[in-house]
Backbone:
């Protein structure tokens, strides 16, 4: 086959592998079963709408590391536990005007309210600097500065880095995410983070997710070796996905198992 035919076919194949979406809705259930006999059930639903299409990067649930599309979102959750229940909700949005990012969100859980104001600037498509100012009932206002950088490796592959620190230097976190396409229609995602608290030890976490195809994946993650989590996701078509996750937490003063089920609709 001549080169002039090969190149257009390759471009058509790459375009065909990408899907575009503007709305994402997730409904989930989570059960925490403690060794002490205590048990909790959490039900939640959340939705986000983007005012410009989001294009998948290979797998149907993978998207660009730095979001640059204006959006609005909201959610509701309910917690049932032995002897009572509690509920909460959140509402927010992000506006991109030129290189500036403006954001606001409000959340409440029972009698505790929290609001966040965000100001960010895109120095380029691959570098975003943001300031989040968080005000929570009964606590001092907290300001967190974060720098997010994406390095494109070609095609859908990238490595991303995020650094965040608060204004009192009581909290700092470095995290990274790596997406790589493999042979055939498979992909690999690697993630890692280290969080340092001024009044406590550092906490680290690592995770990996393997995509057999664009629609099916399995993942594993651990935090400090105290939490071991397994995750499975499958898309029945381009829009509807099912998720199952199981985790075991074995910390010094608490042990419990977590079972999560989720359903995602993206259009």
Residues:
């Amino acid at each position: 086959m001549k080169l002039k035919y090969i190149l257009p076919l390759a471009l058509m194949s790459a375009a065909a592998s990408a899907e575009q979406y503007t709305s994402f809705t997730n409904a989930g259930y989570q059960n925490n079963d403690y060794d002490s006999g205590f048990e909790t059930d959490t039900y939640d639903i959340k939705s986000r709408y983007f005012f410009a299409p989001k294009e998948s990067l290979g797998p149907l649930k993978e998207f660009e590391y730095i979001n640059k599309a204006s959006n609005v979102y909201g959610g509701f959750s309910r917690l049932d536990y032995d002897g009572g229940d509690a509920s909460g909700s959140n509402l927010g949005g992000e506006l991109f005007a030129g290189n500036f990012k403006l954001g606001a969100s409000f959340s409440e859980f029972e009698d505790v309210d929290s609001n966040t104001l965000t100001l960010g600037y895109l120095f380029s498509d691959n570098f975003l600097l943001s300031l989040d100012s968080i005000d929570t009932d009964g606590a001092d206002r907290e300001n967190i500065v974060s720098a997010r950088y994406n390095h494109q490796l070609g095609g859908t592959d990238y490595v991303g880095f995020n650094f965040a620190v608060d204004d009192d230097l009581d909290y700092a976190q470095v995290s990274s995410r790596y997406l790589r396409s493999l042979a055939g229609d498979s992909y690999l995602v690697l993630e890692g983070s280290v969080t340092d608290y001024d009044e406590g030890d550092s906490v680290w976490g690592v995770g990996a997710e393997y995509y057999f195809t664009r629609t099916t994946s399995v993942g594993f993650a651990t935090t400090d070796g105290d939490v071991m989590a397994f995750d499975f996701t499958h898309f029945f078509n381009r829009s509807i996905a099912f998720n199952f996750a199981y985790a075991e937490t074995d910390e010094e003063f608490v042990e419990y198992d977590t079972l999560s089920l989720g359903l995602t609709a993206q259009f």
The longest strand covers residues 39-55. The domain at 22-266 is CATH 2.40.160 (Porin). Confidence is low (pLDDT under 50) at residues 1-16.
